[in-house]
Design goal:
5 strands, mainly alpha, two-stranded antiparallel sheet
Length: 263
């Protein structure tokens, strides 16, 4: 049969991960080219920047790239996994103009309603002040040495360590993944992200405990206050403003996503 409609797929990774640093290599003009991974400015971002700038830029690029004289304003379908879905929800709640281009939003295990971590130690770290977290992890990439350990350890040894960490933090058994497949999957599992982004997620988890799930804007005032646990309300992303049709998919055994709240 004759193909009458062409589908174009584009994959984007979270800001400045290992698959998202081509601006360091390109010769094209780029305002971020002066930023290096060794500088704190390179890692000065949270979920807010990805929602305000990255998602609209991605949608705009795909729309302009796929436009034709017959279809000057093609629609874009967004598919986000975990944090990627949260970025899309936050962006759509902030930017009503996106609704004119995005036809549907599909969330795979969307990190919009999160339960937290299973480990008591990890839960205690989540509740710590941002000042302590920045003192503990710095202001750049979190656990930046992990990729180096991946090259030092054998594939099976690295897979065993990841298995133990997944069990400790998320209570994931990973029994459904074969031992032969794990080394190939796990080498793509971890990629450094900004400490500020992790702190932002800790704030979201702490603010939503015992309440309906909400995505909160990063609260920078905690870094300037000694009473960081005082009762205040930070700005939220109003996902009820989203007019784009959404389809959400998640597993009933997911220990991170709160399926009851998603419904």
């Amino acid at each position: 049969g004759k193909i009458t409609k062409q589908k174009t797929k584009r994959i984007s990774k979270t800001k400045f991960q290992q698959y998202h640093r081509l601006h360091l290599l390109t010769s094209l003009p780029c305002p971020l080219r002066s930023l290096r991974p060794t500088s704190e400015a390179f890692w000065d971002y949270s979920l807010d920047e990805m929602a305000r700038y990255d998602i609209p830029a991605i949608v705009s690029y795909i729309s302009s790239y796929t436009s034709t004289p017959q279809h000057p304003s093609p629609s874009v379908s967004l598919i986000g996994f975990s944090q990627g879905a949260a970025q899309c929800f936050a962006a759509l709640s902030l930017n009503p103009i996106l609704s004119r281009t995005v036809s549907v939003m599909i969330g795979l295990s969307p990190a919009v309603c999160v339960k937290g971590l299973s480990s008591p130690v990890a839960s205690a770290i989540i509740s710590a002040s941002p000042a302590f977290l920045f003192l503990l992890f710095g202001h750049k990439a979190i656990l930046a040495s992990a990729p180096a350990w991946q090259t030092i350890l054998s594939e099976q040894g690295f897979a065993r360590i990841i298995d133990k960490l997944l069990l400790l933090l998320f209570a994931w058994q990973t029994k459904e993944i074969s031992s032969d497949l794990k080394p190939r999957l796990y080498r793509h599992l971890y990629s450094p992200t900004a400490v500020k982004c992790v702190v932002h997620w800790f704030q979201i988890i702490t603010r939503t405990r015992g309440r309906m799930c909400h995505l909160h804007v990063y609260d920078d005032t905690q870094n300037m206050r000694s009473d960081h646990k005082s009762n205040y309300v930070s700005t939220e992303y109003d996902v009820s403003r989203i007019s784009v049709p959404c389809a959400l998919f998640y597993g009933l055994a997911d220990t991170i996503i709160d399926g009851d709240e998603l419904q």
